[in-house]
Design a protein that fits this description.
The protein has about 400 residues and is of the alpha/beta class. The chain is about 50% helix and about 15% strand.
Length: about 400
């Protein structure tokens, strides 16, 4: 029996791994898939040899060292025991490049799916990747040229976030795609938002603000306190107090771990919906979003946003020295300019967030310009069938 191994290190990568596993199973029913991932990959038929770690940043990685070391040992053991036909590495470079080196020595074909951010920091990694992988499948359009210039067989396959949107919304997603090039795109989306708002149990006549704190424990710890203050500010301001609020937690979030903090939100009337980010965003009029994949998801659903992010002081100071980018959110990176406001570290405070949200609410020209730019971000991703294409690439490497 042919075997493919997929390694995903955190929540977004684990989602991509589950979508890929589903596509592989559809195309290759008798394929055995093993891997490192989480609950979604398990439900997609992946035999997990270890769980994801969700570590991010220097401090977080140190605290999760034991878990990461254990996952690495189990992944290497699985490689040697099962000798998969193809190893699929999803982002998570510090872990995956080490596993990939061992796979290379065993003669295993390697597909790297979702590039590390070599264009932002540690650019020299591209040389190691070029020697290691057989093929690259990248999810940002500008990454294809970077790898091809380095002599790597590479293809821009689109972004699985759009695929997730389509899988959740079905035919409604098609109307979003068809609206992408319409001058009145956001008008159609407003009608759609009202309908989805009702299905989620919200008042369709009242505006909805979504709060997306991120999926990593460190992100929840640092962003939830700011977000509860945002809600309280809205509640105390007669001009904007009719807003509704929702936190669509990531599916892998341990709610019990954050129960006391989430209870504070519930007391303020905030609705907590686990695993409902797509529909919640589609119903939303604005969003406060932690920098990460969720900013692209929010952009694809044409939701005006303010982006926030807080790191541990040590990780932040180190990052400032080694990261070479003007912007941190995918929306701005893809646009090549500041389409949405990014509030990082000490700027991620209640005054700055409220200032930006009110600008979105009351400055019509600013809001319309943001809508226009969000549609432009969407264009390169339309018409791509990401997981199906990556599944084909895996099968090609396996000789199918």
């Amino acid at each position: 029996m042919a075997t493919v191994m997929i390694i995903a290190g955190e929540s977004s990568g684990e989602l991509y791994g589950s979508l890929l596993a589903n596509s592989l199973k559809n195309k290759w029913p008798d394929l055995r898939i093993i891997g490192v991932g989480g609950e979604r990959m398990s439900r997609a038929g992946v035999e997990l040899v270890s769980r994801t770690s969700d570590a991010f940043g220097l401090v977080e990685a140190v605290s999760a060292y034991g878990k990461i070391k254990d996952a690495f040992s189990k992944a290497v053991k699985a490689l040697k025991e099962h000798k998969p036909d193809v190893l699929v590495l999803i982002d998570y470079p510090d872990f995956n490049l080490k596993v990939g080196s061992i796979a290379k020595s065993l003669g295993i074909k390697i597909l790297y799916y979702v590039s590390p951010q070599i264009w932002a920091w540690r650019k020299g990694r591209i040389r190691k990747i070029a020697k290691l992988v057989d093929r690259m499948a990248v999810i940002l359009p500008f990454e294809e040229d970077i790898y091809r210039t380095a002599g790597v067989s590479c293809e821009f396959v689109g972004h699985p976030v759009l695929e997730e949107i389509e899988s959740v919304l079905g035919s409604e997603a098609l109307s979003i795609q068809h609206s992408a090039f319409s001058e009145k795109s956001h008008t159609l989306s407003t009608e759609l938002r009202s309908r989805v708002k009702s299905t989620l149990g919200f008042d369709r006549e009242k505006p909805l603000l979504s709060l997306l704190p991120g999926s990593r424990p460190s992100e929840l710890k640092r962003h939830l306190p700011l977000m509860i203050n945002v809600v309280r500010k809205f509640r105390s301001d007669s001009e904007i107090r009719d807003y509704q609020f929702c936190i669509p937690l990531a599916p892998n979030t341990d709610e019990g771990k954050y129960n006391s903090r989430l209870e504070s939100f519930r007391k303020e009337g905030v609705v907590i919906k686990k695993g409902e980010a797509v529909r919640t965003l589609l119903a939303s009029d604005m969003a406060v979003v932690a920098s990460g994949t969720a900013t692209l998801q929010t952009a694809l659903l044409e939701v005006p946003m303010v982006v926030i992010y807080r790191l541990s002081p040590i990780t932040y100071q180190l990052g400032k020295r080694i990261v070479d980018v003007k912007h941190i959110s995918l929306v701005n990176i893809l646009s090549g300019k500041a389409v949405v406001t990014e509030l990082i570290q000490e700027r991620a405070n209640i005054e700055e967030v409220m200032k930006e949200l009110k600008k979105i609410m009351f400055d019509t020209r600013y809001r319309e310009e943001m809508f226009d730019n969000l549609r432009k971000v969407k264009e390169p991703f339309l018409g791509k069938n990401t997981s199906n294409r990556v599944a084909e690439m895996v099968m090609e490497l396996a000789g199918r």
